[in-house]
Amino acid sequence: MVPPMRVAIGGVGHESNTFNPLYTGIEAFRIVEGEALLEEAAARFLVGEGVEVVPTIYARALPSGIVKREAYLQLKDELLRRLSDVGEVDGLCLFLHGAMEVEEIGDGESDLVKGVREVVGEEPLISVSLDLHGNIHPSLIETADMLTAYRTAPHVDAAETRVKAARLLLHSLKRRVRPVPVMVKPPVLLPGELVVTDVDPAASLYSSLNAIDRTPGILDSSLLVGMAWADSPQASASAIVIADGKRNEGKAYFKACKLAEAYWNSREEFHFEVEAGPIDEMIKLAKSSSQGPVFISDSGDNVTAGAPGDVPLIVERLLALGVEDAVVGGILDPEAVRLCRDAGVGNNLKVEVGGKIDRVNGYPLEVKGRVLKLTDDGAVLRAGGVDIILTSRRRGWTTLEAFRDFGIDPAERKIVVVKLGYLTPDFKRVAKLALLALSPGCTNQLIERLEYKRVRRPLYPLDKGFSWRPPEAH
């Protein structure tokens, strides 16, 4: 009887914003292992195909600043130790992000996969799933056998992409053909909010991937936008095509070139899916709207893209413009939460909120308000007509439930401010109007205003008026 194929799964995922001064430590990571990791959709798919799945660890953290070296090495060492303990495997399915920057090391994904390859040897196939906001280092292409990325932003196909990585791996293992990934990187670095995948030109570009995938000799294709707020040499878009064996490498490179050229040629056509403008202009539009709720994205301080989430500028402007019914989710400020807790529900206090981490783009804002609610990790402070949600830990504001944790129903408010870029599907369902405030911060949409030192130049839109063509195949 032929023993079943053995596939190990695991990974370390983090989107690192190098402009955020808040480094990411080990405490920020949530680790999935053992039976819990076997519940991942990719693992269930493989088990359903008769594969013996060997779990290692999958660690991920909310986007933030650069990962501390000691934290990364602790996670890497644990993953590699478990790989060593399980013995020989036929393949590996790794869940990565593509934009993890590690203190003193640099590109985390290429370092991690290199370490995995050293443990398992050259024979096993390695399949990697990625976020489409990854900044892909060429060495990752050289070490892994398959790489496939999300095709939606906002992301609704994360689990689907991991299953696809597993399917590609199993397909190649069964046929005993080693895939060859190729990559072409057009010198374009755009904020993700400009590349929403159901809005043209992105919609057409991502639709074209299906035709590439159907090409004989091609296994899969991906178009990565890149992580705009990572000042690293590999920060840019990436067109990746996987050849079904060495004999199809030239065909894959041709397709990758065409995809990269199409992205390059569309660079000036990308646009925000909603109306965007200065903070005051967006607040005035929201006030004048006859319907609510109106969602305003505080895009420069977007926690889900790695900003600290403590810039209070939009709160200052809401108060200055006399807004009568607004909620802000939220401001990271453990000290302000403590002072609210000391004051107690129903009591008034004067407190400085925010501006304690990102001191480049923000400053503490003094407000007078009344404590409406206290939770285990936060408080709601009402100042004038604005309810400010204060938190003692960073959290992504992506669901209606996040507000309901603080006793607030966004659907019943006139203006809802979220520290996001594009709205999540949950918010889109209730928003009568969505606006994007071009606010300052670590995720400034006007990236030309940020100080890049390490990206490869020329790079659009930091540089204009230069030409580009894909490099000749070697």
Task: Pick out its properties.
single chain; 474 residues; alpha/beta; 2 domains; 6-stranded mixed beta sheet; 13 helices; 20 strands; 28% helix
Distance between the termini: 44 Å
Helix count? Answer: 13
The pLDDT mean sits at 97
Structural class: alpha/beta
Helix content: 25-40%
* DSSP summary, beta strand count: 20
Radius of gyration: 23 Å
| Sequence stretches where pLDDT stays below 50 over 5 or more residues | none
CA-based shape: globular
The order of strands across the largest sheet is 12-20-13-19-14-18-17-16-15
In total, the number of domains comes to 2
The fraction of residues in strands falls at 15-25%
Major sheet characteristics: 9 strands, mixed
